[in-house]
Amino acid sequence: MTANSPAENSATKTDVLLIGGGIMSATLGAFLKQLAPDWDISLYERLDRAGLESSDPWNNAGTGHAALCELNYSPAAADGSVDPAKAVGINEQFQVSRQFWSHLVSEGHIGNDFINPLPHMSFVWGDAHSEYLRRRHESLSAQPLFKTMEFSEDPAKLAEWAPLIMEGRDPGQRVAASRVAGGTDVDFGNLTRQLTNYMGANGVHLNFGHEVGNVTRSSNGGWDVKVKDRATGTTSTVSAKFVFIGGGGGALHLLQASGIPEGKGFGGFPVSGQFLRATDESIISRHNAKVYGQASVGAPPMSVPHLDTRFVNGKRSLLFGPYGGFSPKFLKTGSLLDLPLSVRPSNLVPMLAVAKDNMSLVKYLVTEVLKTREGKTAALQEFMPQAQTEGWDLITAGQRVQVIKKDPKKGGVLQFGTELITAADGSIGALLGASPGASTAPPIMINLLKRAFPRQFDGWEPKIKEMIPGYGVKLNENERLAEEIEADTSRVLGLS
């Protein structure tokens, strides 16, 4: 949806102001239209369309993160054992997302063309990695939410699951793979735009091409938000009772501008990347899975290599990557000054501590930046032995800003998940960080609603339970309900 005229969308006062037109703001706005339909809501996005930064499938988002194939969610302990707890927790969150999306589809608010069925695989080679994957399978397949996970070291079976990863491979190389046939691919750009369309059709003021420059406390306890129309250069101030800062990497600067004590000490470390995107339809058509491997030594978890089928705007595609890189920008369309301008007295110690303790990450990024096109093809050939440089385009991915936070022992730590920050009075909230972000946007936003609107939340819970039948239940401990919800959401979302 394109924005209406400024006169129709402009507002000097609003109940809720959403900063950023990505999946997080869109999810929160959709929740509020269900829970508090009479509230006045305004959304401001600096670009001309929703979902163009990290929510765009060509940038970062694209996997329905359910911990089915992402090995960094179930690492091996020192004794070689694999604890399933984190993977189960992420899968539980994804089940909440599926239920919320299913509700919106069943009510006719959005279509189901943003999600497609797609097997999720983990693939490794070598004795140590193969043994780890075997133990991971034993640990996870014992959990009800992972009971359909298969495991094999049979080259013929792996060739059946994903022929491109086996053709031309050394027959003496030990390989192993796990597979869940019931995985999904999610076009979060499509989903974000459908959610904003729904919001706009139900009274939300959508303001694209508008950049938020500052967020300050107002005298009445709310917030004054300075907004610039990028087309005309005119600025205005909007007063809001509640503000959500969901602008991806751009959220850190606005959180700092707010001055809330809860935001002190946070910093950000930006990581950029690239993908190889297949252009040969004969290659694209022969791969039908998300195949994730092991991250390189020193690589951040979101840089786990994967040969990844995606459906973008309904068209099948194939990506490999990401290749790590570095830019001081906090957004793909951001400024080279983003990183230096984020340094504050309150976060200087954590940022220096992280720099000292993450030299392996720095080494990895330098190596990746210096990698030639031939080097990138060589990395692809570890997954797809017969791959050639021809038939693949190199594209630039989005920016991810990893959270740096205070740590009483180390001074600061680099966090590879997401961090939800809210003021003590609940009048403002911000989301920092990256993976598994988009896939778990609904449970993250439920958590925000609980923190920001404690007086209203008890009254909202029956409606939340109606939208999300498994709300408040650990589905991994209630197998029958999990099966019922799986069947229902698969039917509504067109996955079965």
Automatic annotation (TrEMBL):
Keywords: FAD, Flavoprotein, Oxidoreductase, Tricarboxylic acid cycle. GO terms for biological process: tricarboxylic acid cycle. InterPro entries: FAD/NAD-bd_sf, MQO. One of its GO terms (molecular function) is (S)-2-hydroxyglutarate dehydrogenase activity. Its EC number is 1.1.5.4. Pfam families: Mqo. Gene3D superfamilies: D-Amino Acid Oxidase, subunit A, domain 2, FAD/NAD(P)-binding domain. It catalyses: (S)-malate + a quinone = a quinol + oxaloacetate. Its cofactor is FAD. Pathway: Carbohydrate metabolism; tricarboxylic acid cycle; oxaloacetate from (S)-malate (quinone route): step 1/1. Belongs to the MQO family. This is Probable malate:quinone oxidoreductase. It comes from Arthrobacter zhangbolii. The gene is mqo.
